[in-house]
């Protein structure tokens, strides 16, 4: 995974709450067996509306999505993260995230960071005042800056560290191989296996 | 668990909740300095949609699948529910299914394919095989994995990167959850079911209310539920934002499990039960949050909007957004009513539907089908309404047919389908047309969830059945004035 330090790019406002992962990527696009090429599927239904925010020329090439509360609720589909990433987004800011979406983001190099509802309104106002303005998100300093406005972003220490270092989770876990084997040796003998019953 | 988890001792000195006990018993490495804990996974359920990229990852890194004996796969999301003996018509769906078959064969994973008697929705298959049991950890690349918490298991949905992680290591790095007690006390009125409980819980705490929590459903109304009812409740925990929901194991749990294919046998059974009895939350344990729901006051519940928290009693009316205080909720309600094409103040029972979907991992088990059949028996479906009944697994379908439920359902005028996720998610051929309105026993009423432009009202199997009879959102009590022709019941049961 690529190391994440600072991103500077156009910030697009998503002025809706409860943007579920079915909206981020409808199920019909989940049939692919690859991990890339989902950019056309991002917000597929909403993008048909010419008024939709990502269809506005000011927000072309946006890298930061600033969304209402409860972004990424619903289905566990990691395709939602891949679609945002393939479209060009590096960061999503929201006051609250669906738990699974937030976890998936960290695994795929997308920064999903929390901001307060007050800061959300202030950022939206800043974008409204200057559509297409660039925002700088600094993961090291935990800040997001647009124009004169700087706000704090929140992310758990472990995900931040992994993003900053670009670390692969599985490699990290396999350092505990001995502990995993020891645990396996002490599991209850009656626990089920999926092997066919003879 | 949160901060309390840090001071937790393993000698049981501090009173603990069910969730904390299961967590502690699966701790491989305790995280230090802000690192997550490493948790062992007892059962990994796999399906075709969220696994291909994970298998690919293993191949690329030349890593084996660590515990094929704790992994099981089924085909459900993409599969058609008609003509299952024919090749899948949609080429991309077919490739995804074929990819799962190739991957399962290559890595040695047990797979139940379309046409197999154990095929079905992944969350129906696990419990019916006896693989889901109290105190185990269960994951699957599907958010409705929370279903399995009904057994007192800790079960949650994961993304594809985590699927690969479990395949490679049989563990997951996880930050401890907080715990929330959802106490439901009292007795449900006739016609009120597990589905109404969970829809009311979500309406009460909101779609984000459970974020960061494991929910424990407690209280007399939960204890009185069957295992299948408990599965319905836990299934939709994710719709309240919680990755997992749990119910403490009790005699109902043990009776359901005993004798199932993979349940412990003989002396192992006794040992397992003795362990399971240690799992319920200690009397003086403290939850991070508590919510109370009065079961006596509950009525059949239905959603009017485009997220599962936008619901109301069926006897009520479509809400007026202008009366909602929170600005985010108000604008969400305005958008929802526009999408749903509903007018504020309309009695919900006046809302006419085009389709009724009876199925999904929320409500497709044998008791759900029995409940549906008990209402439609001897009646004829409303004209112009399309009614689909989709059992959750091939085994449930066979069981229903042995009881004659298929006959009751087809006599009613409904379609009797093969097992799968079907119209829950607009991924396979079973979809709503744009603008169509559906009363659905599934779990999500998101925009376009059941097909682009489709409109979904989430309901219980009893409400689905009564709605299919009248053609407008209804509960069984609304059918009192629509008499069942004399002799019709006996006739169908004999058939």
Written overview of the protein:
The complex is a heterodimer of chains A (198) and B (495). By secondary structure, chain A is of the alpha/beta class. In chain A, 30% of the residues lie in helices and 17% in strands. Chain A contains seven helices and seven strands; from the N terminus they run βαβαβαβαβββααα. Chain A has a seven-stranded mixed β-sheet. Chain A is globular and about 65 Å long. The model of chain A has no long low-confidence stretch (mean pLDDT 95). Chain B has 495 residues and is of the alpha/beta class. Helix content of chain B is 31%, strand content 16%. Chain B is built from 16 helices and 19 strands. In chain B, the strands form five sheets. Chain B has a five-stranded parallel β-sheet with strand order 5-4-3-6-7, with helices on both faces. In chain B, strands 17-16-15-18-19 form a five-stranded parallel β-sheet, with helices on one face. In chain B, strands 11-10-9-12 form a four-stranded parallel β-sheet. In chain B, strand 4, helix 3 and strand 5 (110-112) form a beta-alpha-beta unit. The radius of gyration of chain B is 22 Å and the shape is globular. Chain B starts with 17 loop residues before the first helix and ends with a helix. Mean pLDDT of chain B is 94; it is low at 1-10 and 486-495. Classes of the chains: A alpha/beta (198), B alpha/beta (495).
Global morphology of chain A = globular
Query: What helical percentage do the residues of chain B reach?
Result: 25-40%
- Helix/sheet category of chain A: alpha/beta
Percent strand of chain A equals 15-25%
Largest chain interface and its two residue counts? A-B, 60 and 86 residues
Q: Give the spatial strand order of the biggest sheet of chain B.
A: 5-4-3-6-7
Number of strands of chain B: 19
Per DSSP, the total helix count of chain A is 7
Query: Helix- and strand-based class of chain B?
Result: alpha/beta
Using only C-alpha atoms, the radius of gyration of chain A works out to: 19 Å
List low-pLDDT spans of chain B.
1-10, 486-495
The strand count of chain A comes to 7
């Amino acid at each position: 995974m690529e190391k994440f330090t600072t991103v500077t790019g156009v910030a697009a406002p998503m002025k809706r709450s409860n943007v579920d992962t079915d909206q981020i990527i409808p199920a019909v696009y989940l049939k692919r067996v690859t991990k890339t090429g989902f950019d056309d599927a991002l917000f597929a239904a909403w993008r048909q509306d010419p008024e939709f925010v990502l269809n506005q020329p000011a927000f072309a090439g946006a890298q930061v999505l600033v969304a209402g509360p409860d972004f990424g609720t619903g289905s566990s589909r990691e395709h939602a993260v891949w679609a945002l990433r393939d479209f060009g987004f590096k960061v999503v800011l929201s006051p609250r995230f669906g738990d699974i979406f937030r976890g998936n983001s960290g695994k795929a190099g997308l920064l999903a960071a929390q901001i307060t509802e007050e800061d959300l309104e202030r950022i939206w106002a800043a974008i409204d005042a200057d559509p297409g303005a660039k925002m700088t998100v600094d993961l090291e300093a935990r800040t997001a800056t647009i124009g004169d406005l700087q706000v704090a972003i929140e992310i758990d220490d472990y995900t931040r560290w992994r993003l900053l270092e670009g670390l692969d989770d599985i490699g990290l876990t396999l350092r505990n191989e001995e502990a995993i084997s020891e645990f396996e040796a002490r599991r209850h003998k009656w626990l089920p296996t999926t092997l066919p019953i003879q | 668990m949160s901060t309390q988890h840090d001071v937790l001792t393993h000698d049981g000195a501090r009173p603990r909740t069910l969730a904390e006990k299961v967590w502690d018993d699966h701790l491989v490495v305790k995280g230090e300095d802000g690192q997550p804990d490493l948790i062992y996974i007892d059962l990994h359920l796999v399906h075709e949609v969220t696994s291909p990229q994970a298998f690919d990852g293993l191949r690329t890194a030349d890593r084996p699948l660590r515990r094929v004996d704790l992994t099981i796969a089924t085909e459900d999301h993409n599969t058609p529910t008609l003509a299952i003996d024919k090749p899948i018509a949609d080429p991309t769906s077919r490739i995804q299914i074929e990819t799962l078959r190739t991957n399962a064969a290559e890595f040695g994973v047990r797979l139940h394919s379309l046409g197999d008697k154990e095929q079905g929705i992944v969350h129906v298959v696990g419990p019916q095989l006896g693989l889901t049991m109290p105190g185990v950890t269960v994951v699957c690349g599907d958010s409705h994995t929370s279903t399995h918490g009904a057994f007192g298991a800790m079960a949650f949905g994961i993304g594809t990167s985590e699927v690969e992680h479990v395949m490679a290591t049989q563990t997951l790095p996880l930050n401890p959850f907080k715990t929330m007690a959802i106490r439901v006390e009292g007795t449900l009125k006739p016609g009120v079911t597990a589905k109404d409980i969970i829809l009311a819980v979500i309406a009460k705490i909101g779609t984000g209310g459970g974020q960061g929590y494991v929910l424990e459903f407690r209280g007399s109304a939960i204890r009185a539920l069957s295992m299948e009812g408990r599965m319905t409740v836990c299934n939709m925990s994710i719709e309240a934002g919680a990755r997992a929901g749990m119910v403490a194991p009790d005699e109902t749990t043990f009776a359901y499990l005993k004798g199932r294919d993979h349940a412990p046998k003989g002396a192992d059974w006794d040992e397992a039960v003795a362990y399971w009895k240690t799992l319920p939350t200690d009397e003086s344990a403290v939850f991070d949050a508590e919510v109370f729901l009065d079961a006596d006051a509950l009525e059949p519940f239905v959603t009017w909007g485009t997220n599962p928290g936008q619901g109301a009693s069926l006897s009520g009316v479509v809400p007026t957004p202008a009366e909602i205080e929170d600005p985010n909720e108000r604008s969400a309600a305005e958008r929802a009513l526009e999408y749903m094409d509903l007018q504020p103040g309309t009695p919900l029972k006046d809302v006419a539907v085009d389709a009724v979907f009876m199925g999904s991992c929320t409500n497709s088990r044998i008791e759900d089908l029995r409940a549906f059949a008990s209402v439609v028996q001897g009646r004829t479906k409303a004209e112009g309404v399309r009614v689909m009944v989709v059992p959750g697994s091939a085994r449930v379908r066979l069981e229903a047919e042995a009881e004659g439920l298929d006959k009751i359902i087809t006599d009613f005028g409904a379609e009797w389908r093969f097992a799968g996720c079907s119209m829950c998610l607009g991924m396979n051929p079973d979809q709503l047309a744009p603008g169509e309105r559906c009363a659905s026993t599934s779990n999500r009423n998101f925009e376009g969830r059941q097909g682009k432009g489709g409109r979904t009202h989430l309901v219980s199997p009893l409400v689905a059945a009564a709605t299919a009879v009248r053609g407008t959102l209804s509960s069984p009590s609304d059918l009192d004035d629509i008499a069942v022709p004399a002799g019709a019941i006996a006739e169908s049961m004999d058939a």
